[in-house]
């Protein structure tokens, strides 16, 4: 899958002008089972028409631009979306810089300049509540009329939704906040995970006897916080461990990050991209009175995590 960052780069991809594409537009936050059905339809339609499949997302998400103080926590960053959409067989991920200039693009220009002239769309899959363009004047009905004029078809994402199953990014977020990882997993179709590049931290975990691989959660307030039992997928092997997500209040941390202590592991993975799957929440993040108390609690957390992992293994079907 190819990532196109910025609409100015679309012109460099001659496949669009030559063949066209089947497109869907949205946040796709979480890339959950409901999104998966839409992407399945997208890829299928593209294959039938012999064109590329493309997903358009916005960075930042519109609500993060217009109402940053009330925008919900992200389930997935762009990196996560890229990995998950690639697994689903999408050909192109188009990331549009959602700024004031783009937001002021008229609905007509959005359709003619972007969808028709740049992307040469043949079919569009979109929610019937989708609004776009300056003052949100563009809607589903307008797209249908434009399709008749510019020779592309439009279908509603509702026709691909799972029956009798309420799945949304909002509901997943709620499940994660209350620590119900099992419910979140049902809606996602996989364990909730954070994907990121391991960076050099302050080595405080190593000083305490529990070295960690750290992922900085920049530009995102995670919907989860606390201490978790995790599985860690490195480029080659899956490991188990215990992770803390938060700001490390005991040692005056200020940046939100994920720190994972990988069991029975002694390798350097700085710079590598890892996937940390959250399996069970152990406790909330708290501020301890001393480093000694923190160290003692980490040892307890590790022991509890190993017991949870053992019980999960024992309960798996053989």
Automatic annotation (TrEMBL):
Transmembrane as UniProt keyword: no
InterPro entries registered for this protein in UniProt: FAD_synthase, Riboflavin_kinase, Riboflavin_kinase_bac, Riboflavin_kinase_bac/euk, Riboflavin_kinase_dom_sf, Rossmann-like_a/b/a_fold
EC category: transferase
Organism listed in the record: Thalassotalea profundi
Function: Catalyzes the phosphorylation of riboflavin to FMN followed by the adenylation of FMN to FAD.
Residues in Riboflavin kinase domain copies: 187-310
Gene3D superfamilies in the cross-refs: HUPs (3.40.50.620), Riboflavin kinase-like (2.40.30.30)
E.C. number(s) listed in UniProt: 2.7.1.26, 2.7.7.2
Pathways involved: Cofactor biosynthesis; FAD biosynthesis; FAD from FMN: step 1/1; Cofactor biosynthesis; FMN biosynthesis; FMN from riboflavin (ATP route): step 1/1
Record key words, sorted: ATP-binding, FAD, Flavoprotein, FMN, Kinase, Multifunctional enzyme, Nucleotide-binding, Nucleotidyltransferase, Transferase
Enzymatic reactions: riboflavin + ATP = FMN + ADP + H(+); FMN + ATP + H(+) = FAD + diphosphate
SMART domains: Flavokinase
Family: Belongs to the ribF family.
Protein known as: Riboflavin biosynthesis protein
């Amino acid at each position: 899958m190819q990532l196109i960052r910025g609409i100015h780069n679309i012109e460099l991809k001659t496949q669009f002008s030559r063949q066209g594409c089947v497109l869907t537009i949205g946040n796709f936050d979480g890339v959950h089972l409901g999104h998966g059905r839409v992407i399945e339809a997208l890829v299928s339609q593209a294959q039938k028409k012999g064109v590329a499949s493309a997903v358009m997302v916005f960075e930042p998400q519109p609500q993060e631009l217009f109402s940053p103080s009330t925008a919900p926590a992200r389930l997935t960053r762009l990196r996560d979306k890229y990995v998950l959409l690639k697994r689903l067989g999408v050909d192109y991920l188009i990331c549009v810089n959602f700024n004031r200039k783009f937001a002021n693009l008229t609905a007509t220009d959005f359709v003619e300049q972007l969808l028709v002239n740049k992307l040469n769309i043949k079919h569009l899959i979109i929610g019937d509540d989708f609004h776009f363009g300056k003052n949100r004047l563009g809607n589903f009905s307008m797209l249908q009329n434009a399709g008749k004029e510019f020779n592309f078809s439009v279908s509603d994402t509702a026709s691909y939704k799972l029956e009798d199953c309420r799945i949304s990014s909002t509901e997943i977020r709620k499940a994660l906040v209350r620590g119900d990882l099992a419910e979140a997993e049902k809606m996602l179709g996989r364990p909730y995970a954070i994907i990121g590049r391991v960076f050099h931290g302050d080595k405080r975990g190593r000083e305490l006897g529990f070295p960690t691989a750290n992922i900085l959660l920049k530009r995102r307030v995670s919907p989860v916080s606390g201490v978790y039992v995790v599985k860690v997928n490195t480029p080659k092997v899956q490991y188990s461990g215990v992770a803390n997500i938060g700001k490390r209040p005991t040692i005056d941390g200020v940046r939100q990050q994920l720190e994972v202590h990988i069991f029975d592991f002694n390798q350097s993975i700085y710079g590598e991209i890892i996937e940390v799957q959250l399996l069970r929440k152990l406790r909330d993040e708290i501020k301890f009175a001393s480093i000694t108390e923190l160290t003692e609690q980490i040892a307890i957390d590790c022991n509890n995590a190993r017991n949870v992992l053992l019980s999960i293994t024992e309960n798996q079907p053989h």
